[in-house]
Amino acid sequence: MSIRVAIAGPRGKMGAEAVHTVMKHDKMELVAVLDYKEVGKTLADLEMFPASYTAPIFTDMHELVEATAPDVLVDLTNPHAVYNHTKEALNLNVRPVIGTTGFTDAQLDELSAMAKEKELGCIIAPNFAIGAILMMKFAKEAAKYLPDVEIIEMHHDQKLDAPSGTAVKTAQLIQEVRTSKIQGHPEEKETIEGARGAEFDGMRIHSVRLPGLVAHQQVLFGGDGQLLTIRHDSLNRNSFMSGVAFCVEEVMKMDQLVYGLENII
Ligand SMILES: NC(=O)C1=CN([C@@H]2O[C@H](COP(=O)(O)OP(=O)(O)OC[C@H]3O[C@@H](n4cnc5c(N)ncnc54)[C@H](O)[C@@H]3O)[C@@H](O)[C@H]2O)C=CC1
Ligand SMILES: O=C(O)C1=N[C@H](C(=O)O)C[C@H](O)C1
What we know:
Blueprint: E1 3-8, H1 13-24, E2 28-34, E3 57-58, H2 61-68, E4 72-75, H3 82-91, E5 95-98, H4 105-118, E6 122-124, H5 130-143, E7 148-155, H6 165-177, E8 198-200, E9 203-209, E10 215-223, E11 226-234, H7 241-251, E12 257-259
Parallel strand pairs: 1-2, 1-4, 2-3, 4-5, 5-6, 6-12, 7-9
Antiparallel strand pairs: 7-10, 8-9, 10-11
Helix pairs in contact: 1-7, 3-4, 5-6
The chain binds 1,4-dihydronicotinamide adenine dinucleotide and ligand LZUJQKHR.
Residues 101, 126-127, 155, 159, 164-166, 215 line the site of ligand LZUJQKHR.
């Protein structure tokens, strides 16, 4: 039996890749897509997709679910839309696989409680690329020994949220093992606001946005006379697609929310 998949954000950079991934997958069926405005009746009406892509386009999640009964909703939209999409999907007994970043801690807690109550799988993955998951795992390990750390994340200049979901997740994983400390000189002062980056439990996170970049992060650890750099580069959005397919299959076996692929690989 195929897994019935719906995708929110099909015209986006990630959404379009995910459409191709699901269409090519022999265990999945793309039953519908969700957009925020009327752009056509089916994907085939859009120039960017071939005529064989006949999944209908909806602008309302309730109508989409009623008409096409998806098992899974993959969301690749934006930080403003994703929370409501996730909530609506859970309410309609559709399992969310969320790649969109920008959740608050309170939203994650609320969605986790909802998924638990409904006994429904839900994956919120700040990064689907296996190399990025390994970077985060290695950074967590390194922080046990080298607690002075700064994160530099670098993305394309169309990105809406800063810091990236991956940088936040990396800092949270490091926080689990690192003795809390304020870094840098105790009396340091910024002469231009923001010069030292965002502060997370004493760590600093720096966000670079430039055309030409895709998604890159380095985690720098400083020690006595030494520097360790752990770096990951996504060179294209195909780097995320095996993770998307993995999550769609995995979420069908789950009955609660998981935040971060490091918990299930
Ligand atoms: N978890 C991961 O591995 C990755 C996550 N991302 C995240 O995925 C999200 C999307 O990234 P991109 O594709 O680069 O952005 P994008 O801007 O290219 O695409 C977003 C799409 O969502 C659509 N959209 C906006 N509001 C909507 C709504 N209410 N309903 C349906 N569609 C809506 C827009 O029309 C647009 O086509 C971002 O939050 C980004 O951070 C991006 C890359 C990898
Ligand atoms: O917006 C992006 O492009 C990406 N967003 C995710 C994030 O915020 O970490 C994942 C990846 O870095 C690409």
